[in-house]
Amino acid sequence: DSLMADISLAIASTVQDGGRALARLAEEPSIPRTDEVRDRWRQRLARFDPELVVVLIGVWEGMATGAPGRYPLGSEEWERTYRQRLLDPYVELLASRGAKVLWIGMPPVPDARRQRGFTAMNRAVRHLAEESPDLTYVPGDRILARRNGSYTAFLPGPQGNPQRVRRVDNTHLCAWGAVRLARPVLHYVDRQWDMPPAPNWPRRNWRWVFPRDECPPS
Fold first, then answer.
1. Contact at 8 Å (CB) between 162 and 218?
2. I need a surface site. Which of 42, 78, 126, 131 has the fewest CB within 10 A?
3. Neighbour count for residue 48 (Cβ, 10 Å)
């Protein structure tokens, strides 16, 4: 979704550096819920035949998971139903041609109602990753959070200076937030395919996509 778009250029430009990899962004707002969307994914997988699929789904999926349902959001019954009907089949589809799936957990937001949906979704993905050899969970919900797991727009940098990681809308990412979520993805690529990123990748020209008025200095 749009948060994946926030980090996709950092990931794509870095892994494509040197010509050893090809990366593409496929935008869908949520886990497929119709045959039409599932068919779109099948066509993409057949066309690109990826070795790795990186997923970050949050805002729209959170609205869907937070809709009133038969079971309380986040309960064991809800998670079991969510996985059986949506999550597990989606990961199976993404991995159906042999690709590994790297799923970045949705970072926290300050709105408690929205956060309940994100927390439930992240927990379900994490539990599936513990069972599936095709799925690895990247804890974006911890990477871009305070120590207690709550929302923050700023995190300390290497010298302790604050870095803005979230836009002023409290949802989307700024460049340093994209760096922090892209880093474990690039480490995974390096471990699996021996493709170390350039040392200066966090400050390269992919950062131009982040508007200064939405990411003002700390």
1. yes
2. 131
3. 15
pLDDT of residue 60: 78
The answer to whether the beta carbons of residues 31 and 83 sit under 8 Å apart is no
Amino acid (one-letter) located at 120: A
* CA 165/CA 119 separation, integer angstroms: 19
pTM of the model: 0.94
CA neighbours within 13 Å on the CB side: how many for 89?
15
Rounded Cα distance, 210 and 179, in Å:
12
Instruction: Kindly state the tokens that stand for 100.
Output: 């590994």
Through-space distance between the first and last CA atoms of the chain, rounded to whole angstroms? 26
Q: Which two tokens stand for residue 99?
A: 């690709």
Cβ contacts of 156 within 8 Å, gap of 6 or more: 162, 163
Quote the tokens at residue 11.
């990931």
**CB burial readout 127-162, b (16+ within 10 A) else e:** ebbeeeebbbbbebbebbbeeeeebbbbbeeeeeee
Q: Which helix (H) or strand (E) holds 53?
A: strand 52-55
Q: What would the pLDDT profile of 4-59 be if each residue is shown by its tens digit?
A: 999 999 999 999 998 899 999 998 889 999 999 999 999 999 999 999 999 999 87
User: Residue 63: what pLDDT?
Assistant: 73
Look up residue 41 and give its two tokens.
């994914």
Q: Which residue positions in the chain have pLDDT lower than 70?
A: 66-69, 218
